[in-house]
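Please think about what follows:
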Amino acid sequence: MAAGYRFRILDVFTSRPYAGNPLAVLPEAQGLSAAQMRGIAREFAFSATAFVRPTETGGHTHRLRIFAPAGELPFAGHATVGAALTLAMEGDESPEFVFEETVGTVKVSMRPGEGSGTAWLRAARSPEVGPEPPPPAALAALLSLRVTDLLAGAWGPQAVSAGVPFLIVPVRDLEALGRARLDTDRWREILQDWWAPQVYLVTPVEKSPRWRFRTRMFAPGLGIEEDPAAGAAATALPAWLLPRLGPGDGLLAFDIERPCALADPPSPWRKAASSRPGFPEASPRKEGPMAQPGNSPRPRRSRMPLKLLALDIAGALVAAVGLYELFAGGPPLVPPSLQFPGYAIAFLIVGALMMMPLVRHILSQGRPD
């Protein structure tokens, strides 16, 4: 690759460095092949790297190609916003950028402000709804959650896309959102080859003065363990939200925040046509059935602790002595000083009790950690 390609590192959806969603932008990426862009994206190892190139079609200001570590993306919200802000930093004072992306035409309006200002994008296409999602038990197992942690019924999961397909999975509260852990083995079994392999968790945290959601996004198929602020998912979210709010006119504004475990949560807000009926209240969570192997993928097996294994072996030996004394009819193994009426049966009972922790361990397999 020829030397001399400049790049900028940005933190999008935040007001301070080292927060938000990190992004690399190459503002003059003409001449790079797709293989070279993939290699550069893997080197940066961000959730997205944006390559700005001259457009070859009318009606666009630039061609924008976006790569995740695992390959090219048709669209990414923070990469599109970051590319527009980078061009503004480079001295382009255009009030609007019209990017030619794989998903289609994406318009970004610039608004002056502190630093390089702010950028507002319009989705290239209206969101679409995908096939029926996997059953709740499978999704709970996939996310290491209980079935009762997921919202169900009319407010349940749904696959949607505004260029990049996502499986929207609403959870009951912030505690469940923070506890979720993606099981990559189950993900490969359930979602890797499905219509929407990316997973977007959402939970409402406020309804007034306007809706506010906290979210998490997992995309192992794109080489992204977890993305702090997924613009492509947020753009698709209205396809899940608006049908549940009912018909109406006017604009619905809502804020999207990443988890509180990550510093300086952003509030990129989107608009969509709708009225504002209520979101179901998160009722107090009750202990419920776990995702079971019968209706979900293979349960995760945790390693048996060494102390538990040693206790199990000792219990098996004690029980074996009891069985020998009862049925073998050979020379006794137990010294006469330890022989008392019913001692063989006592050895069996003690050995069985020593192996009970092993039984509990086996029965616990398949429960989320």
